[in-house]
Amino acid sequence: MTTLLQDLRYAFRMLLKFPAFTAIVIVTLALGIGANTALFSVVNGVLLNPLPYPHSTQLVALYEKNAGMDRAPISYLNFLDWQRATQTFSSLAIYRHEDYNLTGRGQPERVNGLMVSAGFFPTLGIHPALGRDFRSEDDRIGAAPVVMLSDGFWHGHFGASPSVVGSSIDLNGADYTVTGILPPEFTFYGIQRDIYTPIGQWNDPSFLDRRVDVSSHAVGRLKPGVTLAQARADMDSIARHLALAYPEADKGAGIALLSMKEDMVGNVQPFLLVLLAAVAFLLLISCANVASLLLARSMSRSGEFALRASLGASRNRIIRQLLTESLLLASLGGTLGFLLALFGTKAVIRLLPEALPRAGEVSMDARVLLFTLGLSLLGGIAFGLAPALRSSRANLQQVLRQSSRGTGDARHRLQGLFVAIEVAMAFVLLIGAGLMLRSLAALWRVNPGYNPDHAITFSLSLPSNSRTTPDETRARLRRFDADMRAIPGVEAVSVTLGSRPMIHDSELPFWIEGQPKPANFNDMHQAMFYLVEPGFKQAMGVILERGRFVTDQDNENAPTVVDIDDVFARSYFANQDPIGQHIHIAGFDVEAEIVGVVGHIRQWGPGNDPKTAIEAQFYYPFMQLPPKLMRLVADGVAVVLRTHEDSDAIMGLVRHNVSEFDPGAVIYAVETMNEVISSSMAARRLSMILLAAFAVLALALSCVGIYGVISYLVGERTREIGVRMALGARRSDVLRLILGQGARMALLGLLPGIFLALGLTRLMRSQLFGVTPHDPLTFAVVAMVFVIVALAACYVPARRAARVDPMVALRYE
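RE: above sequence
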């Protein structure tokens, strides 16, 4: 301990003696350690930490699967059969998203909610913080309406008053009794909903039809000791029995199971791992840079080490002293890096929260602290070991002999190796950032199938009740359209439901007239459907390729018609004209005539569609929606409108007109279509921003490394340069000599960097769009930029060398 304290005191004195050197090393390490810590905190929160539920590894997400989709919504009746028949789940629960109008407390407000079965919260292992959970008698048709509140909603609307339990609130015109308050930390799929209601109370015919899904999903808890494979076998057996019992709805259908955690983070896992590899490269670059700086500094201290050795200091003693200095630097750099990570992580999450599932669970916990500590210690040993070993071999006679002769190239091979490592890894990061930048640029150039400029979408809730007839709903929507078109600046408007580009998708099975009717729903073709009004084409900027689009004459009293997209036409009418053909839409139980073909909308975003995505699309007139389904849209619809005015200004007028149209109506989820497209690329944009930031840091660190080595070499070669100039060398010759040495150093790292990039960029293939992992233009441009920046880093020491006065240099020696 005495020796250790002595080494620490001496290390502190040495660091304080050279403050500029110390600051550069600490900042360099802080950047590498900070970036790694920040990203590890994200990976830790998103991928490594268990879900915030008791025994969360037992939680499983369940979906139906068919020929068209691997993760399809489930029908309520099928869920009840799963619940009765399963042998491997201790409990199953079903849920679906449902918003409500909150009235009776001032201005009407739209609140975010979930319909859940009675076993939902026990399945997750969640108990109310106040009041009681839903009971089985609450979860059935005819039961008294009840509701549970989230902690945030309870605080925001009721001031956290305990007396709210047992009282009633007005939702969609009905009185709901508050039974309980949920814990403050409770979220589901990273979202804290406002309210929760029993799903079994939903009295709608479609909900009790096995052939119709209403966007319901399920979650289950495995029995202790049961594996996911055993649960899959159990559910496969149930699916086979349901297919025999209900062939029209369930033949050919299966049940998909995956862990709830995988369901939440599966899409984000690949790009987080790519970024983790990138910051690991950045840390290696930082360590190589610091090692190069320490090696240069240790060479200037060679006389000190030789003198120590001649006075009896052992080689191990010198190595220990130098490693103590390195670990002290690493500790200081790690501390600063942790502080940088603390603010950097918050900034990234605040910048792009929609790109990260479980973003609210990212924090600097004990695991992250241990990671930072371990990284600092390993980094200190990694960058300190080579200089320590090199310096411990100093010999007094050799040092004196070299000081009189100058320095040979052999002494700087290790420094050159460190710089080559920096350049190679920085080149890989720059290639990755360049590929992501080109991908994002290609995505922005993709035609989404509509014109997003000046297009706005929002959701509209119009209060209704069980006595509201389909004709009354249609009349209200027509009045709403007329009011919207009367607003100055509104060019076109359409009420819509079903699918909305990059926001929501809805599919329906169908078969073509003249072909045999499939035996069941799962054997039918599937297509994405949009419920639209005549103004939809202009409001969205959809391109009509042939035929006609839906018109005002396509109303509830006219024959049913549809428009299809060109993918639908190519897929099912490849060698014939689809206009005039008829299709049977099973979900609506109608036969419709095809009257037009429009361009394909990229429903899933501007990038490549998922392999299992449904591509074919059709447009169904809103007013021709069957009466039995019109009740589903009575409470809420979506709206798209086109305007040549500012979106904020136009929405102010829209809100004013809607409040006059119906004081109880609520507008929510307002977005421009450009914002929708931008949100769909949030994950790719986050990847590009972080990769670019890491690449810029890597480039800067590499250039600092080249600058440091060249500066040191210039200082060491002062006598040589003086002799050259005394013998007639011009300043341009010296400048060319030093720049050439820097260029060779950069090229020495670029060559392995190119081969390394060719191998590693293949791992990014799934993250790229419109560009290959081995894109020659990206490789060429990045290499050119790197050489130019490296030469710029060499220019300052090269210019200093060119100004050496031969007489001063020789006299100095």
